[in-house]
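re: ur question from yesterday

yeah so i grabbed the chain u mentioned. its 220 aa long if i counted rite. heres the sequnce exactly as i have it in my notes:
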Amino acid sequence: MNSNSTILSTKKLSTAQKELLLNSGIGFVEYSAIEIELLDVDFNGDVKHAIFTSKNAVKAIQNSEFRVQNCFCVGENTKKLLETNGLKVAETAQNATDLGKIISKNYKNEQFFFFCGNLRRDELPLILEENNIELEEVVVYKTHKKSKKFDRTFNGILFFSPSAVESYVSNNLIDKSTVFCIGNTTASEAKKYTDNIIVANKPTVENVIVQAVKYFDKRI
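ran it thru and got these structure tokens back, copy pasting raw so excuse formatting
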């Protein structure tokens, strides 16, 4: 057990997620670096092809009146939430870039609606634009950064979105902390501040925690 290491989670963890850390003997602090505000979706007409790159977008539309025929999404958890809501998932990818490539290759003549947040990344829209695929964006949630100053250095920091990285560094230095990121888009934001980055091999909160536990166990 490595009781000397302490990590910071930039997201509040569930009881089961906390247990992964507590059982390893790693100390941890948690706070919410961002806050999600779901918007009222006033959308007319049914949708043939819809893109979701986060669970927040799914939550925002799950009680809406319109129907979606085919969903294209990033991550297994987003897929699960769509299917729980009775929606058909046509394609899933690990990240937005890969999803953009799949759509560009196999759905060239189709039109898409992208249900997203106000701080959405550019990768997917740019790929579709380069391939002349029609895309309409519908902003269904807002991300608010909640900055907090920490007067200490953590051995590790867990990041689950690029916005969380931006929120944290607005008041703190990453310094010598090892950073654990949920995916490559989050890692590319963290790379502006440190090279000491480990990316989860699956885009889940649990996998980010597992990477941190493995890393600090090796250092005992």
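noticed a couple things. The mean pLDDT is 93. also Residues 128 and 176 are 38 Å apart (CA to CA).
anyway ttyl
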